[in-house]
Input
Amino acid sequence: MYEKALETLRNNNVRITPQRQIILKYLINHDNHPSVDTIYEALKQEFSNLSIATIYNTLQLFEKLDIIIALPAEDGGIRYDFFGSPHFHAICDNCGEIEDIDFPNYKQLKQELAKEAMDQAGFQTNKIHIEVFGLCKNCREELAKKR
Amino acid sequence: MYEKALETLRNNNVRITPQRQIILKYLINHDNHPSVDTIYEALKQEFSNLSIATIYNTLQLFEKLDIIIALPAEDGGIRYDFFGSPHFHAICDNCGEIEDIDFPNYKQLKQELAKEAMDQAGFQTNKIHIEVFGLCKNCREELAKKR
DNA sequence: CTTAATGCAAACGATTTGCACCGCC
DNA sequence: GGCGGTGCAAATCGTTTGCATTAAG
Output
């Protein structure tokens, strides 16, 4: 997983700097869908003179290389997610939490969507991106209690 | 379509102001996926003292009421889309254009995704949101020429 | 060595906010 | 006529930029 991502960097002639390594490790080891600031706060302790501009740069780079994906968040900001295995996102309308849901039949779904896009608009699909919105388990239970 | 949206406003005890009406009409009559600024530039001519803050307010309101949906754009900004009939979006990695693609089997797909979200996380799905990324027809042809 | 990458601080710009006024219901 | 909505301008804050410095390959 980590190695595969480094491989991607090498294949694109991107230098493997310590900053990129710790940001990558952070993304792999945390499934909390961090914001730029969350990452910055977490890493500046062990890497005191880490610049927030570097984090912006690095995340944009990783996204371009399809190592991570960007998601829209409740507050209008952006969250990032290491994209090791295909999954989609369930985003709670109440608390804003983002949960990963595994795709049972990712390839098939992708093909179906790609076919429609091609048939209707001559659009060539490279990747797909799915979110569902609603209520997470906790919020459902909380709201049920209240009435 | 227009009436149905007004109905939604009434049902939520939201006042139907001239500003909300022209913004709504604009969204229905344009499938260009406008940004806040695009809408502002277009409408301030016929409504000279229209405030950009009102547009922000109105769009946020419409989105909350599921009259429109917000999409992430190429440049990091946000575009809006009147959501009359179920469709997903094909976003070109090269030129940033957003195209609407009709869902052939929207309900079935929604059910499948909702089932996974429920089974895996106890998440109750209200709406789904799908984008595919790749190359639009024009860009494919352009890029083919160049080599 | 060469050149990409980083850190820093300043600049930017989209979005939000506070408040007085207005007008929909 | 009450209160939600609007317009305006200022404030905010996430993100980008320019440039000198550093270090990866």
User: Anything to note?
Assistant: Residues 13-15, 17, 19-20, 49-54, 57, 76 of chain B lie near DNA strand D (CB under 10 Å from a C1'). The domain at 85-147 of chain B is CATH 3.30.1490.190 (Dna Ligase; domain 1). Chain B has six helices and five strands. The radius of gyration of chain B is 18 Å.
